[in-house]
Design brief:
Shape: globular
Radius of gyration: 17 Å
CATH topology: Rossmann fold
Largest sheet: 5 strands, parallel
Number of helices: 8
Structural class: alpha/beta
CATH superfamily: HUPs
Strand content: 5-15%
């Protein structure tokens, strides 16, 4: 495509694969991250190294990779009582949702991403939301994202398109997508540089990357790696 995409880029595995997906498809790609006082804020520190490695190891992508934007959304931390914003146990809450659910987070992210995309002339928004291997977050569901696209287009009088390339695939297929997009070089970037662990643990190295190995994010990532390695 000849258009510009803005990728919601957290520094985690999923958003890194989505960034590679966008770089493979769009003429220009920018990235946006959000500092909301998350406990695993180390993921933001990983973003720069990931971008540097993509620029250095993938020349075709380097030519398309534009500015990075980081927004301060600390207000989410102020109004949230969740396991991602407080020292709260990671468990299933009274509502049936995990305590890692930050109400409105993805809706807020997409609203601000839309505002930046409006200013930057980008029509495509790319996010790593997934309804296959996920924790049940309602703002990761396909229906929520379709509704959000309509709201952004009506509210900003634009024709944004929200892309969720991981929506219907599991974590094993996400690893496979990364391999198809960038080979073993991209797999190495994901293993060594990305961060998904809710506890922000970077001291423990596993075959699939860094993390505590016990939180839901690590368990999903490890299970996906095992499934990916078992593929013929």
């Amino acid at each position: 495509m000849t258009e510009t995409a803005l990728v919601l880029f957290s520094g985690g595995q999923d958003s890194t694969v989505c960034l590679a997906w966008a770089l493979d498809r769009f003429a220009a790609v920018e990235t946006i991250g959000f500092d909301y006082g998350q406990r695993h804020i180390v993921e933001l520190a990983c973003r720069g190294q990931i971008i540097d490695r993509l620029r250095g190891q993938f020349p075709a992508w380097a030519a398309r990779l534009g500015p990075d934007h980081v927004l301060d959304l600390g207000i989410l931390n102020t109004i949230s009582e969740t396991a991602l914003t407080r020292e709260v146990a990671i468990e299933t809450g009274e509502t049936g949702l995990p305590t890692t659910f930050v109400p409105g987070r993805n809706l807020v992210f997409l609203t601000f991403a839309g505002a930046v995309a409006y200013r930057r002339g980008a029509r495509h928004l790319v996010g790593g939301m997934c309804e296959t291997d996920f924790s049940g977050y309602p703002d990761c569901r396909d229906d929520s994202l379709k509704a959000m696209q309509i709201a952004l287009n009506l509210g900003m009088d634009r024709r944004f398109v929200i892309h969720t390339p991981l929506m219907w695939i599991d974590k094993a297929a996400t690893w496979a997508m990364a391999q198809a997009l960038g080979g073993e070089a991209l797999i190495d970037v994901i293993v060594e540089e990305t961060h998904s662990c809710y506890h922000g643990v970077r001291e423990k190295r596993h075959p699939w990357g860094y993390g505590c190995g016990q939180c839901p994010a690590c368990e999903l990532r490890a299970r996906g790696w095992t499934g990916f390695q078992a593929r013929p």
